[in-house]
Design brief:
This protein is an alpha/beta fold. The chain is 47% helix and 13% strand. A 7-stranded parallel β-sheet has the order 4-3-2-1-5-6-7, sandwiched between helices.
Length: 236
């Protein structure tokens, strides 16, 4: 087979170093901007969930109601990824309650639409920068039903708490019909094979009770994210 039509791009060592330097500079800029952004909102709850959820969905309305309660009952800011679906519902609840409704958006192809219910927004190029910011110093993490991205974020935070890389913060799976099926898989396949410990099941909880979610957040210790920052940057 002839390879005369194949074109190989030759990258010099200096070009490779320059590309790496630019990427590191951008990463550094994103983290500094994110931490400066979050310093303005010392008390917060991060809400995760799927983008493909309509505004007439029960999960959208659960997120909206919870966003409202977090603002009115607790006085906390609500953080989401700033997109549609569950994120919009949570932001909308916080926004219409007159609270801090924050969106941490990321560049995607095709472009993800922003939701209009944000009082403050920051944009990211890198997913991992945004994921770190979403988890940084939150008083609790609430997961509503979602797709691969939501599951990715859930298992990453669960692993970081399990391994002591971040402080133990409530991880609440909101929407029992959806999450109990995942819990069943974890118990029947992962736990039964000795891949995790029985005690690891206590790192998260499942509920349909909005009052319970609010009380868990209310009772959660407030932290400033410093320990998270020192530990999480070890794995970036």
């Amino acid at each position: 087979m002839s390879h005369k039509n194949n074109k190989h791009i030759q990258i010099t060592e200096s070009e490779l170093r320059e590309t790496a330097r630019k990427r590191v500079d951008l990463i550094d800029k994103e983290f500094k901007s994110a931490f400066a952004f979050l310093e303005k909102y010392p008390l917060s709850v991060t809400i995760y969930g799927g983008t493909h959820v309509r505004d007439d969905s029960k999960y959208y309305n659960m997120a909206k109601s919870l966003g409202d309660r977090i603002v009115k009952d607790l006085g906390y800011a609500v953080l989401t990824g700033g997109g549609p679906g569950i994120m919009e519902g949570a932001n909308r609840g916080a926004f219409e309650a007159g609270g801090n409704s924050l969106g941490l958006e990321v560049e995607l192809e095709p472009k993800q639409e922003s939701n209009p219910y944000q009082t403050d927004t920051i944009n990211f190029h890198y997913f991992f920068s945004r994921k770190t910011a979403l988890a940084f110093s939150a008083e609790a993490y609430v997961f509503l039903p979602g797709g691969f991205g939501t599951l990715d974020e859930f298992f990453e935070i669960l692993t970081l708490v399990q391994t002591g890389k971040i402080v133990k913060v409530p991880i609440i799976l909101y929407g029992a019909e959806y999450w109990t099926k995942l819990e069943k898989f974890i118990k029947e396949e992962i736990l039964s094979r000795g891949m995790i410990l029985e005690s690891d099941l206590s790192l998260f909880m499942i509920t349909d009770d909005e009052d319970e979610v609010v009380e868990i957040i209310r009772k959660a210790p407030v932290h400033d994210g410093v320990e998270f920052l020192h530990k999480h940057t070890e794995i970036i």
